[in-house]
From TrEMBL, chains A, B, C:
Pfam families cross-referenced by the UniProt entry: Hexapep (PF00132), Hexapep_2 (PF14602)
Species, as recorded: Alkalihalophilus marmarensis DSM 21297
InterPro entries linked: Hexapep, Hexapep_transf_CS, Trans_hexapeptide_repeat, Trimer_LpxA-like_sf
Bilayer-spanning residue ranges: none
PANTHER family membership: ACETYLTRANSFERASE, ACYL-[ACYL-CARRIER-PROTEIN]--UDP-N-ACETYLGLUCOSAMINE O-ACYLTRANSFERASE
Keywords annotated in UniProt: Repeat, Transferase
Alphabetical list of PROSITE patterns matching this protein: HEXAPEP_TRANSFERASES
Single GO MF descriptor: transferase activity
Protein name: Transferase hexapeptide (Six repeat-containing protein)
């Protein structure tokens, strides 16, 4: 265990063997951190947060010469709000905010500048790209891939292994990158595929394995490849 | 290396640098444990078992306030039977039994109350949810998602990246959660999607990328989205 | 930190706390290695390489009694060429070569005897099987599964969560195992499924969620399940 002298540690905090806590980290009362974790500079862990083993918090983004997206050099510190639970073998980058009571399962990877609301669940091995916004009381199940610049509202359910993309032209350098928008209450079946910048309407349902190439109306259901309406609420 | 004084260590056991072994763990003869592992309280590692680096065995489940499934508080200890091989960066929970000669590859995640038979192979990054039963001589390839309450019998082959679900109503609180049943000798192609509670018959074949919404007869083949019979053995 | 006395360390090298560096490892000038990493025997890390935390380099393959593919016992050492960047929680096996300026993201798993060219990007949690060859300036996005014995040429783009297989008979012991061949400049949409030994022609496009069961002509576009031509360049 190696805690930098500048770290602020609240009352009743538990820190596991082998964990390294860098400069300027703030740890709230009753927080618990597992073994062999690496808490990078300036990370803010609020009260009652529980963190598993071998987890890395506050990682800085890097890139190689080819990558289009240059990492921001002015990221705020990673903040984990009250009573959130973070699993083992997790990696969360700088510039991200995890809401209170939110559950991040084992082996999850969350990039920089992501915002996750309150009481949301992110399943094991889910991968969340930069600049994505996820609401409250939402469930993103195990193995999902959430692309960059995606908006997922409140009370959304995304089944296991769903995949998204945000680049119509697949790295040709043309056009903007925009992920899907998934409105409140929408439900997406497991292993569904969502194309860039489509909108899944409020309370819409996407069937398991569907390949969604167009917007889906609110309260409607789509299935198949390409996805077609099984039930269409309206054309609004 | 930090081994609790109550740990029973067999003959010829090797334990890597930085590994922590908690109270009441039992390690059989000739077992090998890698570096920086965390072996939680009471885990039973039988003779000849080989474990990679940075692996966590015997983790206890947790939850947040939103999650429907409350973790059991009366789980038995994780047991790894004779000569099983466990990779690196693996996480296996309490209450699970790994059969003898079974191979669990790197970065796999196995939850509580899972039973895996003998000489089975679980590929890298596979994710296995609670209360699932997997037989002997079965192969679950890399990146598969096996949902909770699933039954997979003997000599089954599940190709890479297959996905399942166990909740028809997608977290609406209605109905029971039941995963698929996959009978002996069935083969599932890569990236197939299986819906909740369907039965894949003995020696049936599911094509790669198929989306299986109904039961599949034994010895029959289905392909497509939704999956349709390419070859149908009988209507029994 | 534990560095074997035989390790050759260049000028200006940084090595993180808790990292173990085994016999015969060679580390070039200005290389940086994170915390709690395990660098296995003989691994060659060239100048300017940057490696994250909790990463394992140079792992030796193992198997159980059931597995068809016996690990080679004569693997060369893992080599990471100049200025490559390797993420955190990564596992790369022996006998593999990572080209210069290549970027390997967090939680990636790369098996033995894989060759990756220069300035290529391998996204987070990608899984790459043995004996696969990947060219230069290629992007394999997050969560992709690249099967064994696959050839991916230069300037290829593979979207997130794509899946492949290399065994038509699904472990029946019949036939050769051959992965797909993906020619230069081809682009594969997210969550596409590729069957064994198919050829994706030069500059061809595979739509998101497509299930590709046959060869795809150069400069042509396929979509759907099974994939059909949306645009066909020629029948050559």
């Amino acid at each position: 265990m190696e805690i930098h002298h500048s770290v602020k540690v609240g009352e009743g905090v538990k820190i596991g063997k082998g964990t390294v806590i860098e400069e300027g980290v703030v740890i709230g009362n009753q927080a618990e951190i597992g073994m062999n974790c690496i808490i990078k500079k300036g990370t803010k862990i609020n009260q009652g947060v529980i963190i598993g083993d071998l987890t890395i918090l506050g990682k800085s983004p890097t890139s190689n010469r080819k990558m289009a997206r240059r990492p921001s050099t002015t990221l705020t510190e990673l903040t984990i709000a009250d009573n959130a639970r973070i699993g083992s073998h997790v990696i969360i980058y700088k510039g991200t905010v995890i809401g209170k009571d939110t559950f991040i399962a084992d082996q999850v990877s969350i990039r920089e500048e992501v915002t996750i609301g309150e009481s949301t669940v992110i399943g094991r091995q889910a991968m969340i790209e930069p600049k994505t916004i996820i609401g409250s009381n939402t469930t993103i199940q195990t193995g999902c891939y959430i692309t960059a610049d995606t908006i997922i509202e409140d009370r959304v359910f995304i089944g296991p292994c769903c995949s998204m993309s945000n680049d119509k032209h697949m790295a040709s350098g043309k056009g903007l990158h925009t992920g899907p928008v998934i409105r409140s209450g929408a439900k997406i079946g497991n292993n569904a595929t969502l194309l860039p910048s489509i909108i899944i309407g409020e309370n819409a349902i996407v069937g398991a394995g569907a390949v969604v190439t167009k917007d889906v109306n609110e309260k409607s259901t789509v299935v198949g490849n390409p996805a077609r309406y099984l039930k269409k609420d309206s054309d609004n």
